[in-house]
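Q: Hi! First time doing this. I have a protein sequence and I read that you can turn it into a structure. Is that right? Here it is:
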Amino acid sequence: MATLTVRSTYALDVDTEKALERIARRWKVSKSEALRRVVRSAVQQTGTEHNEGLQALDELQRSLGLTTVEARAWATRVRTERRASSARSERRGG
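A: Yes, that's right. Below is the predicted 3D structure, encoded as structure tokens:
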């Protein structure tokens, strides 16, 4: 059975490229295989693809106990304040 392969191009900084080459040499595999293994490992370590930071934000938001209406009102108020602040900054040239 053939393995489906998707070809992609990525830009890596020099240090990351060198690290990938070292890993591939150590594991005696291609850089592509090394990269696949590293990505699989990262997904397994997190247990989920959901970011820990987002989980913390979700918990914080739940702890506030805001209703949907209250949350929307807060968002509207903050958006209005940011726009007003941005307009003042533009008028001052900055």
